[in-house]
Amino acid sequence: MSEAHQLLESLATAALAREPLPTPERIREVIDNLRSMPLCSAVSADEGEHLAMLLEERHGVTMRIGALLTAKDYEPWLEAARPKVVPYYWERYRRLLTERGWSGQVLATLDTMSERILGLLENPGKPGPWDRRGMVVGHVQSGKTSNYAALICKASDAGYRLIVVIAGVHNRLRNQTQLRLDEAIVGRDSARLLANKQDQYIGVGRFDKTRRPVTFTTSARDFNKATATGVGVPLRNLTEPALFVIKKNAHTLNNLLEWLKENARSTSASFDVPMLLIDDEADNASINTRYGSGEVTRINGQIRDLLHLFDRSSYVGYTATPFANIFIDPDTDDEMVGADLFPRDFIVSLDPPTNYFGPGRVFVDEPERVVRHIMDHETYLPLKHPIYTEVRMLPPSLCAAIRTFVVARAIRLVRGQVHQHCSMLVNASRFTDVQQQLRNEVHEFVESIKASVRVNGALPPREALGDPEIAALHAAWSDEYQDAGATWEQIQPFLHESAATITVVEINSRSAGSLNYEDHERTGLTLIAVGGYSLSRGLTLQGLMVSYFLRNSMMYDTLMQMGRWFGYHPGYEDLCRVWLPEEAEGWYAHVAESIEELREELRIMEAANATPEQFGLKVRGHPDALMVTARNKMGSGELVRVAIGLGNHFVETAVLRRDAVEENRQSVRHLAEDLARCGRPLSSASDSPTGWLLTDVPVEPILGFIAGFRNHVGSMLTDPGPLRRYIDRRRTEEFALWDVLFASVGRPLETGLTDEVLLGVPVHCQQRSPGTRTDKDTLYITNKQRVASRGVEKTGLPPGEAAAAEEAYRLENPGQGEPNYPDRIYRRRRHRPLLIIHLLAIGGRDDDFRRMKPVVAYSISFPAPTGDEEKIEYVVNTTWLRENYRGDLDDDEMAGDDE
Q1: Pairing state between β 754-755 and 371-373
Q2: Quick check: 675 pLDDT over 80?
Q3: Distance of CA 275 to CAs 100, 412, 510, 727, Å?
Q4: pTM for the whole structure
Q5: What pLDDT is stored for residue 748 in this prediction?
Q6: Under CATH, which architecture does the 68-73+84-349 domain have?
Q7: Tens digits of per-residue pLDDT, 297-308?
Q8: At what angle do helices 144-158 and 171-181 cross, to 10 degrees?
């Protein structure tokens, strides 16, 4: 990109910044006027049109204000205080975001949302003592740092004087956070500042230098007592904000506590300075998340001690996972509410902009476009491997991913995105020795690509394809990007430039690999980052296009935090690809849907004026709390009792007993007989698109079926004891009448089965494959462990209700075209529960399955409760959990990995 083009983009961005929704015509008018200036005249008409389309996309981005819950005793203060607030820090930061291309719509929402959160803190001018505790629920890689940077700016303008930001658990993330806050708030390079070097103004410091915030940490170094003392600024009489950005580490927190206590001794045991503490990734500072090791409990206690040092303090925990363990861990509801870090005063949900590339988009709406399955790793690098594993060769799937990255980078060059960052992630092992070997193998493979395109990339396409490596790159383009708007003839000339700039770096505690994008802002940095836990939480890989993720986890917060590929990909979102095991895709889809359910619950509870305490209880009562809580207590070896509610949820038997296949077939036959005896024979069922549907079915046959179905212990939510008790308690009210669907596809599959003998009507079996973990005792229904097809919960809804549900979803999710409607929107409008009987043709890996008769599974869609829901107690056997998921726990969640 030429200097003239860069200047034109900068000037056009600034000119449009104050226009919330500039039209395409207005954007082109601004560009044409600027191109007439001598400094921008070198920009061609085609380049101007390309910039117009980029700005059109940028300014089409909108952002909604999220949900908000507050405690009953909340007293607003900000409106009365606003006339005295000078928005110095906020206006500088707003100008910086404008310069970086934020649309007027998104800036306006950020302004409103950060103002709303500020108002939920306490008035810093209020005489003490006081304390506030709150939480902000964002999305992974969605801009939480920008939100709390805006909050810090506004809090500083309002009078908060000491700001502590507890950034992630690794040095790189802390350093990255410090640098971003240097740009947003301090305005100077902190590394030079505390090294007694000449000031280097960065970020907001380029606009206005009249006020000088103090920083006690630097972008190169965490908190240090001697360095902090050397700053020489007394904390008791601060006139400008003082900033500490520290790692979430027991040693660092202890040093800070000791230093603060030493400074407090001269007068009193505490400070009267209004303090704001931002706890980034707050789910990592909760109680008992380390399965009894005590480490996180210690950090939690240190954060509380830090807050207690200040007579006036506000705590805001930021997290992307509403299942954050501060809601889940305590044994009783009273303990949960009484915990010091429980967000008793407020909970805010951040809605991301419309251009956010999040888990719902990747794993629910567009998995066919984005996700690729890794199926060849066991020969090269098994999911579970010891620390001494030798990497002798890369899996072919990883080679395909690297070639895809090279081609994607070439397409971006064709599009004119020349000096922009481009990254690839390889996260395949938690062991540093294995990561180093992987890095070396990837480096050698990239070098072989460089050699081929350097020698033969300039040949005519027909001749160049004689090179096996260029032919393989062409195959990657053919497989992934034929519809990306660039022909192979356009792409091939850019392959050399694309590959030549790639650097392969190892990112872990002992490596010298760098993610220093800031030093390459003018030229762009192109890299492949190979690592483990360091790449799994917090670090931002700028320009991330291709991810190769050979890890497995079932912990919800860990899964989402590992998703470094979420975020914003302006101008290249269509090029993004994710390689991962199929089973991991299933877990991601499940967690994405579960988290969205809780966000929707937040919106509903906001409308009902509910409190944070009530939402905390709702999270504890969510069915997924059963897994989260049990896994958190896995080290105890005891039975875990969890009270949950199934209202507005979907349960199904995705794990089956192989020794009970015939018995469960008979349970379906008995169900059909019981239905006939109560006047609802299958012969009277309506032939719906999803199968044979009976409506207004009495509850007794359903209870009998659940009692007779031999459940697998791994299908925890369909444990017949708790499930029958839950239904039985509502049998005279909400669950007196049911819909029952015998699922059937439109016509028999070639490899499927049709079972008319069992039920008396032709049921065309759904085809399902056995999951790879299937053994002689257990049948997993697909690697994703899903039985029902998407959209099945629409069955039985009156057409008007279904249409209303879809219209409401479109209004809440604008800009998606014709969306892929999630089943939860239909479930909430159900008035009767829906039992779905599945007869499955298991096709798969051996003749054993192909000889099987149809396998029975079932699903239940429970409508939303009409009033307060009585929870039912489930008992989890942690011995079984340890046997099945211990290896998962020993992975990223435990200490002793790549850090």
Answers
A1: unpaired
A2: yes
A3: 30, 45, 35, 50
A4: 0.85
A5: 62
A6: 3-Layer(aba) Sandwich (3.40)
A7: 688 889 999 999
A8: 50
